């Protein structure tokens, strides 16, 4: 049996959890989320606590599903009460971002600006310097996916470190050719 799956989920006062076959609908102050459940799992709600149970499968076989289902429901409850946020940094000369409605427009060193349409339920904010982007929403998966898609537009370059990175992400830089050593020191004897 999963240790994570066994622990009950505390449901705050302003949150309503409706259990449906194969899914759970969680409604709270920030919005409504419908979370699909893995097979062989059900959720029971009583006394402001939700508990995930396995059905038709032994605890040894379904331990991972048990923990997964509990984490998914817990993330839904956290999302509708507090929300989730992912911060990105844009590093590079002339690299910047702007938000207009549901479009995030970025200048990333290409010959054209890159436009990214934000999906429903996702909000982006840009700091006054236009180099910090905050992605927020109630669905943890969607917030992480949008942040990853934005990072993929211009991943950090290994020599200078320019590009889009997560806030606080450490980029391991490579030494350039000039810093690698004297000519001929690596790779065999010098040519005659």
General description of the model:
This protein is of the alpha+beta class and 192 residues long. It folds into two domains: 3-81, Outer Surface Protein A, domain 3 (Alpha-Beta Complex); 84-166, Ribosomal protein L6 (Outer Surface Protein A, domain 3, Alpha-Beta Complex). Helix content is 21%, strand content 35%. The chain is built from three helices and 13 strands. The chain has helices spanning 3-6, 59-81, 140-153, and strands spanning 9-10, 16-20, 23-28, 31-36, 41-46, 49-54, 84-91, 96-100, 103-107, 114-117, 122-126, 132-137, 163-166. A four-stranded antiparallel β-sheet has the order 11-12-7-13, with helices on one face. Strands 1-6-5 form a three-stranded antiparallel β-sheet. The termini are far apart.
Give a summary of the structure in a few sentences.
By secondary structure, the chain is an alpha+beta fold. The chain has 3 helices and 13 strands; from the N terminus they run H-E-E-E-E-E-E-H-E-E-E-E-E-E-H-E.
How many individual β-strands? 13
By DSSP (H or I, 4+ residues per run), the number of helices equals 3
The radius of gyration computed from the alpha-carbon positions, rounded to a whole number of angstroms, is 23 Å
The CATH superfamily of the largest domain is known as Ribosomal protein L6
CATH class of the largest domain: Alpha Beta
Average pLDDT, rounded to a whole number, is 90
Order of helices and strands: HEEEEEEHEEEEEEHE
Show unreliable segments. Answer: none
Largest sheet: 4 strands, antiparallel
> In order across it, which strands form the biggest sheet?
11-12-7-13
CATH topology of the largest domain: Outer Surface Protein A, domain 3
| Tally of separate domains | 2
């Amino acid at each position: 049996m999963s240790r994570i799956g066994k622990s009950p989920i505390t449901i705050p006062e302003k949150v309503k959890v409706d259990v449906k076959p194969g899914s759970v609908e969680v409604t709270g102050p920030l919005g409504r989320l419908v979370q699909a459940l893995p097979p062989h799992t059900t959720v029971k709600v009583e006394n402001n606590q939700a508990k995930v149970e396995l059905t038709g499968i032994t605890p040894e076989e379904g331990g991972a599903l048990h923990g997964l289902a509990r984490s998914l429901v817990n993330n839904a409850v956290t999302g509708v009460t507090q929300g989730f946020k992912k911060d990105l940094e844009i590093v590079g000369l002339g690299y910047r971002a702007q938000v207009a409605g549901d479009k995030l427009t970025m200048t990333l060193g290409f010959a054209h600006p890159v436009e990214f349409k934000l999906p429903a339920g996702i909000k982006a904010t840009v700091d006054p310097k236009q180099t910090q982007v905050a992605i927020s929403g109630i669905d943890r998966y969607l917030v992480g996916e949008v942040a990853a898609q934005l990072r993929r537009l211009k991943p950090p370059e290994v020599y200078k470190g320019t590009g889009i990175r997560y806030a606080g992400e450490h980029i391991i830089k490579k030494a350039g050719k000039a810093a690698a050593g004297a000519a001929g020191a690596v790779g065999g004897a010098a040519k005659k």
